[in-house]
Design brief:
about 450 residues, alpha+beta, 2 domains, 7-stranded mixed sheet, 4-stranded mixed sheet, 16 strands
Length: about 450
Amino acid sequence: MSDFEVLGATMSSHISEAEERDKEPDVREQDDILSLLEGDTLSIRISSHGKFVNALLHSDDKKITESTIKFNILFRGNIGCTVLTRCNTRDTLIENGKTYCNSDIGKSDFKKNMEIYYNDNDSGGEIVKVNVVDCDCNTFPFRCYVPDLLLDFEADFSTGYVLYKDDMPIKPYYDKSNEKAEIYEFKNADGDSIQKLLLSDALKYLYRKHIKNKNSKKEIDVYVSSCLYIQPNDIDSIIKGYPVWYECNKNNIILGYEKELEDAKKLHEKTKIEVDKCEDNLEKLKKIKSDIYKNLLEYIKQYIDPESRKENFETIELITKEIDEYIESIGEEEFQDDLDKNINELYDNIKDFLDEHTISSKEKFDSINDKYITQRIEYDEILEAHKKCFQTKRKAESSVDTRSHKKGAGKKKGGKKKAGKKKCCKKKLSKKKGGKKTKKKKNNI
């Protein structure tokens, strides 16, 4: 069973169990709020991370009835692209242990992408039809399958969903004078926050908790503020499994990968500089150890004795700093009082310091180098995904050019005459026996 099958199964059971639980005070409070919404426009905004995955949003169309609810799904970004965290979930207020939104993104930041039709059933509702805006299934000989969007609520910003009435956020004991809106979390039957949730399951959750038998409106706007990225390792399955949806969105998907390539390149180039710096430091340490490790004791004696120190005595800052700090910690006079003992102790300390510093520098180098390798692999994966998308684009353009060429070649009349071309003679009529007129064939010049 795939991760998404497990996710779907557990989500269904969580929702079912949650429905059967006794209502807690905050649930009753929410019902009181929503009872005010009957006959008014209810809209919902979801804030999370997001990416399209190889899981069907909806499979088979079913009958739309009078009780069908239509969810208008609006996205902040383009399909295949990431978006900046720039929503009111960053502008929050904590009051009595609850999180509220202080400000809001405007409607102009969102664009309608889908219409999802939803029917009630024994299991709490199901998607019966999906229309993708500006994506005409009739122009393609394939079924219009749409991939699901995986919402990820584990983030460094406040995530969840907010309810709106007539474009105004709802707060407990709804008050028009107060436009704060509480951010709600998606929770399972045990009351724990759900970290990852498919859009299809999120709609089921919202339908059962806030819409079913509570709202008379048949059309609800759902504003999804999340990235709409496709992981490079998913692009093959998206291209093959959702050809119509991909064809409608491939230009934006290509642009998304180009943006990610640019960011990934900057990132791994910056990390490469860190790697080179760490490698350089490590090489210096190795050189220090090979050059003076055996003569370290003599080196220390020369450094602390101005009379024996040569004028061009080469000091190594890494070691001399440790020597200076050691002498300073003891006191210069005290250090001189028991010079032999202190020099020997200093020698042991410096050797340990060099060994430990070499180990930690090697670990730092390995860590940053591994990071660089990972970033480079990710860059290559994005590049490969971009190439696959671009190849499908070129193939599509090539087939369009071919069709256009064939159509143009079949035209007999119309259009401007091109210079340098010989005219074909007009077809003359000649009589055959029997008096019938037929077209006389003429060879093309």
